[in-house]
Write a structure and sequence with these properties.
This protein has about 280 residues and is of the alpha+beta class. About 15% of the residues lie in helices and about 40% in strands. The radius of gyration is 22 Å and the shape is globular. It comes from Candidatus Brennerbacteria bacterium CG11_big_fil_rev_8_21_14_0_20_43_10.
């Protein structure tokens, strides 16, 4: 009886250890990513999020959620993150850990001139200083917004317009006089008054007018995922309101630092603004 019990315990422990040790991660779109792009890390052979004690990237904690029955993490690579190799670690509650190297590649640098519209003072040094100063203030407000500790979404994300054509891509630098401003979102073609829809379920954390971003909405989707809609002409939602995927939340315009009607969208992961088009290719429809 004693020998049988010992053998049973040994076999159970051995095969349990083997199955957990065999756990691996699958990185989408792949293990090499450009500055400013999102990464999805799927943890295979781990049945539940409850088996994971912590997930980190480059030493910083990142949230994990269940997606397609797999523990999953969304990572945002900052546009200014140094090119090189960084480590993702999933620490399991049984004491084991899974590591994966993710290589960040340098993005090709592009710079284009962009003037200041007359409504914001035109192309004068005074207007340039006012622009940069107010952008710092507006970004501080956006950076302070709270995000929920659980996912509010119940499905993948969607585009905000009925028809979506990119007119200004993510990642290039705008040269305004002696100042440079990175474009950390995308501009979508939209005539004045085009209907703007929520990209997913979430809670409105901000709905207000800014000097530069114009009429702006920020929707918190939880777990550090935020979508931002800027230069709007009309806002139909209020702070604290729960919005649903595809719900009409605004109409496009050219308020703020805009020379013609369009919709600017920003997607943030853990406070990092990443390429919205790459995000939708990874976690959208």
């Amino acid at each position: 009886m004693g020998m049988r019990y010992f053998l049973y315990i040994f076999l159970v422990s051995f095969f349990t250890f083997q199955s957990v040790f065999a756990a691996s991660v699958f990185v989408l779109p792949n293990q090499q990513v450009l500055q400013g792009e999102p990464v999805m890390v799927r943890i295979d052979d781990v049945a539940s999020v409850s088996e994971i004690s912590k997930t980190t990237f480059d030493g910083k904690s990142v949230p994990v959620f269940l997606y397609q029955n797999k523990p999953t993490v969304l990572l945002g690579i900052d546009l200014n993150k140094l090119a090189g190799e960084y480590t993702f670690v999933a620490s399991l509650k049984n004491g084991l850990s899974i590591t994966q190297t993710i290589t960040v590649l340098a993005r090709e640098k592009k710079t284009e001139p962009l003037g200041i519209p007359e409504k914001l003072g035109g192309n004068t040094l005074q207007a340039q200083i006012a622009l940069v100063t107010s952008l710092v203030q507006e970004n501080a407000i956006l950076n302070s917004l709270w995000t929920g500790k659980k996912a509010f979404w119940t499905q993948v994300f969607r585009y905000p317009l009925a028809s979506n054509t990119v007119t200004d891509a993510y990642g290039y630098t705008r040269l305004t006089g002696q100042y440079t401003i990175a474009h950390k979102g995308v501009d979508l073609r939209a005539s004045q008054g085009t209907k703007v829809y929520a990209m997913n379920r979430g809670v409105v954390r901000l709905a207000r007018m800014f000097r530069n971003y114009g009429k702006t909405i920020v929707v918190d989707h939880g777990l550090g995922v935020q979508t931002m809609y800027m230069h709007l002409s009309k806002i139909y939602v209020n702070v604290g309101e729960l919005v649903l995927p595809g719900q009409l939340i605004a109409k496009s315009g050219m308020t703020g630092y805009a020379e013609q009607p369009h919709l600017h969208i920003t997607v943030r992961l853990g406070g990092i603004s990443i390429d919205p088009i790459k995000f939708l290719a990874l976690f959208g429809k």
